[in-house]
Amino acid sequence: MENLEGKELIRKTQSVCPECLKQIDAYIIVDDLEGKDAVLMRKVCDDHGFFEDIISRNVSEYLKNQEYYHDYMPIENKNNMKDSGMGCPHNCGMCAEHKSSPCIALIDVTNRCNLACPICFANANNKGYIVEPSIEELRQIFQHFRDIKPTPPVMLQLSGGEPTVREDLPEIIRMGKEMGFVEIMLTTNGVKLAARNGVEYIKELVDAGMDAIYLSFDSADDPEVLKKTRGVDLLKLKHRVIENCRKADFGGVALVPVIAKGVNDHQVGPILDFAARNRDVIMGIIFQPVSLCGRIDNEQIRELRYTTSDLSEAIGQATGDDNMYIYPIPATSNMTKLMGWYDFAPQFTMASHPDCGFATVMIANEENGKMNWHRIEDWFEVDQLFEWVEKVWAMVEKREWPNLTEKFIGPLAKLFGNKIGDFINQASDFAYRKAIKAYFMAGAMQCLKGMDGPIKQFIPLMLSPKLETAGAFFETGNNLMISSMHFQDVYNFDTERVSRCLVHYGVIDPDDPSKVLQVPFCAMNSIHRENIEKKLCKTPIDVDPADVTAKAAEWVKREVGE
Fold it and tell me: Phi and psi at residue 417, in whole multiples of 5°?
């Protein structure tokens, strides 16, 4: 391929042609971008020519991320699809090539919406038809995910469209809990939650079993941003949702900002600050660099593409860390395996592709009206901790017994005092599993840089890493989960990423309603959604997005005020 000669090749993968969606070769390389090295994807379609996209503007960060590939947890009972002859990602359902079991089961409970957001990846109000699975169809989809072996997803995410337009949403949530999902998350624009009866509605959803709200939140203080991203000024509405959650005594809100270059990339700092000042309600932020829709050329991609490297730099600038590095999601893969093996948490593994996103915990303390930020990594030797996790997990896989020497007992003795002997004896009594637990905790304590300050809040979680202690950690103090999930589009599509996806859509197979299609997130939105939804369409409608936006503006004025 021309355009590669003399360039540093990081890896070869497969992608799709943005025009015809045919599978084509793609090359991840290092090359000059506006006078500075960057990581680029280059690909050529025989029919539609050359395409280039920006994967990362920080080469050293990208290369470090690539060190965190991890073994995946495969699905043993895949309902393998017939080979379309077009290759990945055209065989989704699941196909035999998929490598990972999902952590999140994602279901669109409707494609109806009370907004017409210009940046909606579901393009909900421009379809001209309604797709809305019945309660029994949802039960079928839920059961499909619960039947995944050896490890079903622990989290259920209800999305759309806008899920709250369904009057039976509490019933759907309750059904999910009864069928065994540990964590149920609601993706919402917040319109119904901000209504005059919003507090009562939030309580109703919580009583049904809702654990978290994923609230779209593109701006903390700039109404013009929301006009561009959502079609209407929703600033006061978003703030009202936070107030209503506070009144409902609900502290499980995650802000989900879609960040678009030149539109709201200046809002990263204000959103961080808003979350910190509303820490009693907000547990974290999940930034999403925007996926590019429509047909655009290579020059436009350079102007519009916002990457996770841009985001980590912006977070660093906002929090006072000029050398910000946030570990990619799969860095915690063996940690989550270990937690599941201990029975501290449901079994799952975060073995996504390193390019999919990152996550950390940040602690914000206000002093003299200014937020001071620290990452949890400031109190840990993180690389040392990950090396220790790798060692212990390798021992588990080989069934090796640990040696609880004085070297490892020392740090525990500081915590347990005279009870350290009882602690070690108990580990011996419960044999291997308890011995490994004690061994791991003792070694992990050596990775602490100190035991003063906010890290004290983290020690109970490290000693007993389960959902209850994790919940307590995020419900107390000033701790915020700060993460990113960079969903793909047809320009930067990478089949290696899709094959490791941990967020899978579930949808009734339109060609065989007795089956459920299980489709990775980026493949669904970039490749499959339109074709599947057209086949599932039950009710054609004539919707004018401009009319939806106008009605939304009237509603906000009436319910929330000027």
Answer: 60, -130
